[in-house]
Amino acid sequence: MITNNQQPTTNSACPTEQSFGRGFTLIELIVAVSIFTIVMTISMGSILGVFDANRKSRSIKTVSSNLNLALESMSKEIRFGKNYHCGSSGTLTSPQNCPYPVGSTFVSFLSSGGEQITYRLTGTTLEKQITGGGYIAVTAPEINIDSLTFYVSGAGTSDTLQPKVTIKIQSHAGTGKGRSDFTLQTLVSQRPLDI
């Protein structure tokens, strides 16, 4: 029974007009999605930058490790060798100088074991030959040698200089932003006295 002073009770399961006004408007959703998109774009740029830095770091490590190994191997063999021959003229067993600034992309010498060892640059690869055999690559395929120069001094028998070989290698690995350039140089002096 309803009296004049009492209002009819409403069912709480039915929504009222005021409960619909509590959601997000379309403009608020567009702004939120736009801010999220901007933040994600900046974050992805940072992540891609980290990946590029990692790729460049790996290429630097690959090049430096491989070139150091090749240079150490060459240096050791040259240090204990004799009869250095630089350049392509004459017989390989007779000593021949290639002083600075001329140099050559080719060096040959007699190893401590009596074998004729030759190093040369072919295209972008450092190659080695032992006593008339075929040439084999010394550097990894992903390393590109831009220039290799051997400078030999004191190889002749008529001088009183201790024979020395200077090796200069300019190389790179990778392409584009991941490219890493290197220049390595070392001086190797013949171990047995030749004075």
Describe what this molecule looks like in 3D.
The protein is of the alpha+beta class. It is built from 1 helix and 8 strands, in the order αββββββββ. The N and C termini lie far apart (131 Å). It has one domain. The mean pLDDT is 82. It has a 5-stranded antiparallel beta sheet with strand order 1-2-3-4-5, with helices on one face. It has a 3-stranded antiparallel beta sheet with strand order 6-7-8, with helices on one face. Strand 7 (164-173) and strand 8 form a beta hairpin. It is rod-shaped, with a radius of gyration of 36 Å. The protein has one helix spanning 26-79, and strands at 82-86, 106-110, 116-122, 125-130, 136-137, 143-153, 164-173, 180-189. It is 28% helix and 29% strand.
Overall number of structural domains = 1
Q: Strands of the biggest beta sheet: in what spatial order? A: 1-2-3-4-5
Biggest sheet: strands, sense, closure?
5 strands, antiparallel
Helix content: 25-40%
Tell me the total number of β-strands: 8
The coarse silhouette is rod-shaped
Global mean pLDDT: 82
List the helices and strands and how they pair.
Elements lengths: L25 H54 L2 E5 L19 E5 L5 E7 L2 E6 L5 E2 L5 E11 L10 E10 L6 E10 L6
Antiparallel strand pairs: 1-2, 2-3, 3-4, 4-5, 6-7, 7-8
What are the main properties of this structure?
single chain; 195 residues; alpha+beta; 1 helix
